[in-house]
Write a sequence for this structure.
C-alpha cells in the first residue's frame, strides 16, 4: 500500500501539498521554522508569526506549549514554560493561527507538541477548531503509529495532515508502519536525541533521505541541530526542507531582559535571523 | 462496564488496561521499547531467568521477609488483626529492590552497558545504584534539585554505591522532571542504555514488568497468611504514588472476591484545598497522557501537568500506574487518601507502639489502617504493606514537628 492511498484528500490538497509543489517548481528546498505559541507573550508571538513568511519561512511549525516536553531540549522546554507563564493555552494557540490567517492564506501552519493538551481539549472539538482556525498539519511527538487511532486517523478524516517523525532508530522493517498514515511530509529527525543538540553529518543525512525516499513519495524535511544559515544550506541540498527550531527559540530567549520581558527590537532581530536562514536555503542549490 | 473473568490478564498485547496504559513515546524510543518488550517476554518464559532472580532475592535481598502480626497496634486500635508485610527489612530498606534485581538481569540479558534511572525520595535510586554496583554497571540517577535537598541521606548513599546523581533543575525540579530528564538521556543514548523505571507506570511494557517483579510481595503474603491463619486476608492496604508496592501486594489477590483492597494516595494539605496542595492522582485528578501512558494525572483545565504536594517525596508524582487507574474505574480497588497530618500521626504511632519507624510513604497506608481497623471485627485479617523504612525521612519529620536536629 503506498502512502498516498491511505491519505485521501489530505495529501493531494491543502496548503502543505501546494507549498511543496511550488517549491519543486522553483527548484529549491523549503525552510520550516519553529516558534512556540505564546512565547514570550501573546502579542510578541503574533508579531513573530505574522512576520515569518515575509522573512522567508516557507512552512511554519507552531509549538503547542506543554509543561513536560520529554523529547525536547532545554531551549524549547524553556520557551514552553515562558509561554505558559504568560498565559498560553491550546485555545489561545488556535487564536494565534486564526489571526495569522487573516493576513496569509497560503503559508502552511503545523502545530507541534504533545498529546495531553489535545486529549484534554477533546480530540473532535480540537480538530474542528483547528480546521476552522486554519491549521494544516499536526506533529504530535508522543503519538507513534501504535497509537494512530487516538488522533492520527481522526485528523486525516478531518483533512488535517498528520506528519510523522522518522529517526535514525527507525529501521527499514519499521519504516512502512511509520509511513502508513503519514501525510503532508515526513520529518526526519537527523540525530537520536533531543532538540537543540548536536547536528548530524551531511553524509548521514543524505543516506537517510535516500532511504526514506525508497519508502515514500512524500517530501522529506530534516531537522534537529540546524543552527546556522550554512547548516540550513547544507541540509537544503539533501532534503526537500530544512527545519530550524531551537536556534530561533534561543534567539527569542536572548532578546529578553532580566524580567523576561521582550527587549526593543526582538521581533526584528528574530525575523532577521530567519531571513539569514532563508537566504542560506535559497542559495543552496544556486 | 462488564466485569472481566479475571482481573489478572491485563494488559492486552498493546499494553492497555481498559483505556489506560499504552505506548505514548517519541519515535526514537519506539524501536527500543519494542526490544525491551521482546526481551522481557523471552525472559519471563525462561526458567533460568526466574531461578537466577529468585536466587538473588533470597541471598541478597533477604526474601522472604516476615509477615508480622502487629499485636500492640492491633490492641490499641481495637478491631481488625493487623499484619505488616515487612518490605522495609529488605536490603536497601524498601520494596524497590525487588524490581531492580529483575530489571538489571533483564538489562544484562539485552546486552546493555549503562543504566539510567529516576528517583523521587531516593529509594529507587538507592536500589538501582545497589544493583549496578553488584553487577558492575555504570549508573546515572536523575533526581530533582528539590528532592536532592530534602533527601540528602539517600543522595549520599547513591554516591557511595558508585552512582552519578544528576541534579534536575528543569520544570518543577521533582520526580516528574527527573523522569523527563531520564527519557531525554534515553533518547540520546538509545543504543547502549537501559532505563530502569522504578514504578509501575511509563510506556508498555514497564507497568507490567514492574508489577510482575513486585508481585513477589503478594505471593509471599498469600503463603504466609495461609501458614499463620489458615486463610486468605480480608483486606490489603498499601500506599499509592506511582503504585508499585501496592500493585505488587494486590495483584496475586485480584481474582479473590473476598479480599478487599485499598490504595492510599497522598492528600497533602487536603484534596479540597486545591490541586497544588495534594498528590492524589486518582482521587483528585483526571485521565490524561504523560510519560508514555494514559492514566490519572494531576493537571489543569488545559492539560498542563500540575506539580502535586506531599510530605513524602516518594508520593508526589503527578501520575499513577495505569493498572491502578483501570482497577479504580472498574471498582475492584478502592482508592482513598491520607493527609500530611494524618500521616505524621500514624508515623509516630507506629514508632511508639511497634518500635518500627516506617517510611512516610508507608505511613500514608498506616493512616488508613488507623481509620479503618477500629470499625472492623476482631477476626478481620488486614495486611499493611510496610513498603519502606523511615530512616531517610527523620529530617523531614523533625522539621514538621518543629524539632531541630
Amino acid at each position: 500500500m503506498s502512502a498516498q492511498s491511505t491519505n485521501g484528500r489530505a495529501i493531494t490538497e491543502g496548503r502543505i501539498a501546494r507549498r511543496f509543489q511550488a517549491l519543486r517548481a522553483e527548484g529549491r528546498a523549503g525552510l520550516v521554522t519553529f516558534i512556540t505559541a505564546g512565547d514570550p507573550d501573546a502579542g510578541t508571538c503574533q508579531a513573530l508569526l505574522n512576520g515569518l513568511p515575509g522573512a522567508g519561512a516557507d512552512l511554519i511549525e507552531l509549538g503547542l506549549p506543554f509543561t513536560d516536553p520529554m523529547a525536547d531540549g532545554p531551549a524549547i522546554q524553556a520557551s514552553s514554560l515562558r509561554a505558559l507563564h504568560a498565559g498560553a493555552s491550546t485555545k489561545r494557540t488556535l487564536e494565534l493561527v486564526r489571526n495569522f490567517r487573516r493576513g496569509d492564506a497560503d503559508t502552511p501552519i503545523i502545530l507541534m507538541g504533545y498529546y495531553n493538551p489535545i486529549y484534554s481539549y477533546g480530540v473532535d472539538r480540537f480538530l474542528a477548531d483547528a480546521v476552522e482556525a486554519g491549521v494544516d498539519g499536526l506533529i504530535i511527538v508522543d503519538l507513534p503509529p501504535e497509537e494512530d487511532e487516538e488522533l492520527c486517523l481522526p485528523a486525516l478524516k478531518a483533512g488535517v495532515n498528520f506528519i510523522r517523525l522518522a529517526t535514525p532508530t527507525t529501521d527499514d522493517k519499521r519504516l512502512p508502519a511509520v509511513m502508513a498514515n503519514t501525510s503532508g511530509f515526513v520529518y526526519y529527525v537527523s540525530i537520536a536525541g533531543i532538540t537543540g543538540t548536536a547536528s548530524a553529518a551531511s553524509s548521514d543525512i543524505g543516506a537517510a533521505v535516500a532511504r526514506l525516499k525508497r519508502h515514500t513519495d512524500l517530501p522529506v524535511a530534516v531537522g534537529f541541530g540546524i543552527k546556522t544559515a550554512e547548516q540550513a544550506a547544507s541540509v537544503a541540498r539533501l532534503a526537500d526542507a530544512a527545519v530550524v527550531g531551537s536556534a530561533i527559540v534561543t534567539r527569542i530567549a536572548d532578546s529578553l531582559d532580566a524580567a523576561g520581558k521582550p527587549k526593543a527590537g526582538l521581533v526584528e532581530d528574530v525575523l532577521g535571523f530567519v531571513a539569514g536562514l532563508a537566504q542560506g536555503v535559497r542559495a543552496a542549490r544556486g | 462496564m462488564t466485569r472481566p473473568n479475571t482481573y489478572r490478564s491485563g494488559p492486552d498485547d498493546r499494553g492497555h488496561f481498559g483505556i489506560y496504559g499504552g505506548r505514548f513515546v517519541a519515535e526514537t524510543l519506539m524501536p527500543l521499547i519494542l526490544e525491551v518488550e521482546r526481551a522481557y517476554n523471552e525472559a519471563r518464559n525462561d526458567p533460568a531467568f526466574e531461578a537466577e532472580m529468585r536466587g538473588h532475592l533470597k541471598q541478597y535481598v533477604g526474601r522472604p521477609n516476615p509477615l508480622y502480626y502487629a499485636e500492640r497496634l492491633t490492641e490499641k486500635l481495637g478491631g481488625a488483626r493487623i499484619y505488616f508485610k515487612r518490605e522495609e527489612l529488605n536490603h536497601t530498606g524498601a520494596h524497590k529492590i525487588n524490581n531492580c534485581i529483575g530489571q538489571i538481569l533483564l538489562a544484562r540479558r539485552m546486552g546493555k552497558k549503562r543504566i539510567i534511572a529516576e528517583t523521587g525520595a531516593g529509594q529507587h535510586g538507592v536500589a538501582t545504584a545497589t544493583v549496578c554496583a553488584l553487577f558492575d554497571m555504570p549508573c546515572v540517577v536523575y533526581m530533582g534539585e528539590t528532592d536532592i535537598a530534602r533527601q540528602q541521606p539517600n543522595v549520599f548513599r547513591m554516591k557511595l554505591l558508585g552512582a552519578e546523581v544528576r541534579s534536575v533543575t528543569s520544570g518543577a525540579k521533582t520526580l516528574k522532571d527527573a523522569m523527563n530528564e531520564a527519557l531525554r538521556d534515553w533518547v540520546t543514548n538509545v543504543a547502549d542504555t537501559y532505563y530502569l523505571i522504578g514504578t509501575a507506570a511509563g510506556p508498555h511494557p514497564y507497568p507490567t514488568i514492574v508489577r510482575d517483579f513486585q508481585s513477589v510481595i503478594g505471593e509471599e503474603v498469600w503463603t504466609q497468611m495461609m501458614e499463620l491463619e489458615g486463610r486468605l486476608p480480608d483486606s490489603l492496604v498499601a500506599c499509592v504514588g506511582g503504585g508499585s508496592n501496592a500493585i505488587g501486594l494486590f495483584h496475586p489477590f485480584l481474582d479473590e472476591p473476598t479480599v478487599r483492597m485499598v490504595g492510599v494516595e497522598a492528600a497533602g494539605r487536603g484534596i479540597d484545598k486545591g490541586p497544588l496542595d495534594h498528590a492524589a492522582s486518582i482521587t483528585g485528578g483526571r485521565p490524561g497522557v504523560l510519560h508514555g501512558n494514559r492514566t490519572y494525572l494531576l493537571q489543569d483545565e488545559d492539560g498542563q501537568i500540575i506539580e502535586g504536594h506531599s510530605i513524602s517525596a516518594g508520593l508526589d508524582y503527578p501520575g499513577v500506574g495505569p493498572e491502578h487507574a483501570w482497577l479504580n474505574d472498574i471498582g475492584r480497588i478502592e482508592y482513598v487518601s491520607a493527609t500530611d497530618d494524618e500521616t505524621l500521626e500514624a508515623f509516630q504511632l507506629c514508632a511508639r507502639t511497634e518500635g518500627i519507624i516506617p517510611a512516610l510513604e508507608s505511613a500514608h497506608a498506616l493512616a488508613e489502617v488507623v481509620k479503618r481497623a477500629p470499625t472492623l471485627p476482631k477476626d478481620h485479617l488486614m495486611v499493611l504493606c510496610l513498603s519502606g523504612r523511615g530512616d531517610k525521612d527523620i529530617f523531614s519529620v523533625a522539621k514538621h514537628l518543629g524539632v531541630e536536629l
About this structure: Residues 25-58+96-206 of chain B form a domain with the Rossmann fold fold (CATH 3.40.50.1100). Chain B touches chain A at residues 14, 22-32, 170-171, 176-177, 180, 183-184, 187-188, 190-191, 288-292, 294, 297, 299, 301-305 (CB under 8 Å). The mean pLDDT of chain B is 96. Chain B has two domains: 25-58+96-206, 64-93+211-401.
